[in-house]
Amino acid sequence: MTIIDITRKILHEGAICDHCLGRQFAKLSTGLSNDQRGAALKLVSSMNAGAEKDKELQDLLTRSSGEIKCWVCNNLFLDIDAWVKKSVEALSDYEYSNFLVGTKVTGLLAENEEILWAESGTTFAEPLKTELNREVGKRIERITGKRANLKKPQVVALLDLENNDVEVQINSLYIYGRYRKLIRGIPQTRWPCRECGGEGCERCDNTGKMYPESVDELIKPHLLAAAQCDDTAFHGAGREDIDALMLGDGRPFVVEAKRPHKRSLDLSALEAEINRGAEGKIEVLGLKFVESETVEQLKSMKVDKVYRMKITHNTTEEKLKSSLNVISKTLIKQNTPTRVLHRRADLERIRKVHSADLESYNENTAILVINCEGGLYVKELVSGDGGRTIPSVASLIGSEAKVIELEVIKVG
What we know:
By secondary structure, this protein is α+β, with helices and mostly antiparallel strands. It has 13 helices and 14 strands.
């Protein structure tokens, strides 16, 4: 079947605009817009009808010339400028350097297009919404100087044809950094009250929280102000115990600004503002912009950790050193610790201790430095947790041992 034959079948369905006719052959040529392609098809078909004295084809072309009501798009493409104006206005409250246009078509338009494809048999068409997205996008580019981005747009203008409105989708802004936790008693993220589940009760003084603040909450207000975003989400590379310090060069994290109005943030100033507001409780460093994939990479990180811990014991220095020699370079078998069984599945884990050193010794206390695989519960490595961790310092010295102070000094 020739292009003229397919064009004739399309024209048989009813009056059609240049955009919708040309779109049925969009995959056959480049360098032309669909309306240019449609106008060219009508011209060539008219010339062919004249040469062949094909009155039927000429009548069909006459029906689709001049000011017509296109049965496929209902003259949607006459309203492109109006959609461009609505889109630019809808996006005007947000800072962005790239964007994407999307379209939610009506059921009628989708049905019209399917009928046309079925009746004409064309295999060269592109969807109506693809053309509308492209044409509106090109004009937004000219007006705003921003660039369309098909893969990772910062903002999306979604044309809702049913409701004659533009819905704005704002993609999150992601900032990577490391945090140091300089005092004990602060969780990484907000911890809802166990009694009320966050509703507020006497136990939590109606705050809905187990602890008054967290690393997340010490960062959040400053990012809310800087990015003028609706909310934030905190993503950490693991977490330390509430009573542990996070020292060294800190723990990696990504903080997500949801629906930000501002994107060109001064991260040095933001870092300084967070640290000033934290008043020595936490410190953030190395803030930089990243893509959303970094969150997943962060969550799946398998990194070694180094801990310094102060323990209580009732043994000699020689016995303690001997127990650490046994643990060093050893695979440790652990069941989920008793203290977290209420929120984690009871699983058996195998983790390796790379090194276990005695930093200092006193009669009833000692300082240990443990370098191990991520996921090892180091408090239980010392106490044994009633035999749920094997081997442990307690089992090897033959008496009770317990961590009383814990510091994470290196992550990764």
